From TrEMBL:
It comes from the Bacteria. The lineage of its organism: Bacteria, Bacillati, Bacillota, Bacilli, Bacillales. Keywords: Cell membrane, Membrane, Transmembrane, Transmembrane helix. This is Membrane protein. The keyword Transferase does not apply. Its main location: membrane.
């Protein structure tokens, strides 16, 4: 028992020291900038895929609105509507390259932040590192699409089964709770993939899991708490005027980046304790 307590003390002491040394808040601010630059290209690409998928713009926006502050959703929805109404055709041809390239900038910044957490330099060539960022971006898009499709088909199947049992109303109340559980599981899968593939370091497979759990729980709680604060107390529009929505979006992206890096720091600590070979 004492040995475990000493381990926990040593682990958290080392974790907090590394968080301070790696300037996690500074990295989160940097990530928020790149996330902002990546957000709209990524959403534009997702919207251009909608004609080929059984989901709608509302499905994508509803998924985001579960966690994003209300002012942020107005900004995202308004700008996306303007862009999609005024864009010319052919985005899924040459334009897809530029869109994915822009969207992968956010993932490239994540790779940099995780390399710092592991105290390693980027040993991969520029093309390999950029390819990794694009690969992770595509992976995130695929998982995001699955996250959107599962509720669509899951609700249809559930309503069909429960309607035959005569308790469809009961299913709706259960489904509203399950929606958040499914979202959290999808986020966890995304985080595990990022933490395992992004660093320029060969890590143990299982050491990607603790940080993914921390990041998932932390991101959900922080997003919901910030959304509640903005909706109930923080009137940014009155304070900052027309740029209030942008400030809310940047703060939310900063908090998201903070949780992502924090999960990486936790994984880095387990990596140092457990070794560097993959089970």
């Amino acid at each position: 028992m004492k040995k475990r307590e000493r381990f926990n003390k040593s682990f958290f002491k080392s974790l907090f020291a590394n968080i301070k040394e790696d300037d996690v808040t500074g990295l989160a601010a940097e990530l928020s900038y790149f996330f902002l630059l990546s957000l709209f290209p990524l959403l534009i690409f997702l919207f251009t895929l909608l004609p080929y998928l059984p989901i709608s713009q509302e499905d994508i926006l509803n998924f985001i609105s579960d966690y994003a502050p209300g002012e942020t959703m107005k900004l995202i929805e308004g700008n996306l509507t303007d862009i999609m109404n005024n864009r010319s055709g052919g985005l899924l041809s040459f334009g897809i390259i530029a869109t994915i390239w822009s969207a992968s900038n956010g993932m490239k910044a994540v790779v940099k932040a995780l390399n710092r957490a592991y105290n390693v330099d980027e040993t991969r060539s520029y093309l390999v590192a950029r390819g990794m960022s694009i690969f992770l971006t595509f992976g995130m898009i695929i998982v995001f699409m699955v996250a959107l499709l599962l509720p669509v088909f899951g609700k249809q199947i559930g309503m069909y089964v429960f309607s035959h049992l005569g308790i469809s109303g009961f299913f709706v109340s259960i489904w509203n709770a399950l929606r958040f559980v499914i979202s959290a599981i999808i986020l966890f899968i995304i985080f595990v993939g990022i933490y395992y593939f992004a660093p320029s370091e060969k890590i143990r497979c299982l050491t990607a899991v603790p940080g993914a759990i921390v990041a998932t729980i932390g991101w959900v709680l922080v997003s919901l708490a910030f959304s509640f604060y903005v909706g109930s107390f923080g009137n940014y529009s009155n304070t900052y005027g027309s740029i209030g929505s942008i400030i809310v979006l940047m703060v939310w992206l900063f908090l998201s980046g903070l949780m992502l890096i924090l999960g990486g720091e936790v994984n880095a600590q387990f990596h140092k304790k457990k070794g560097s070979t993959c089970d």
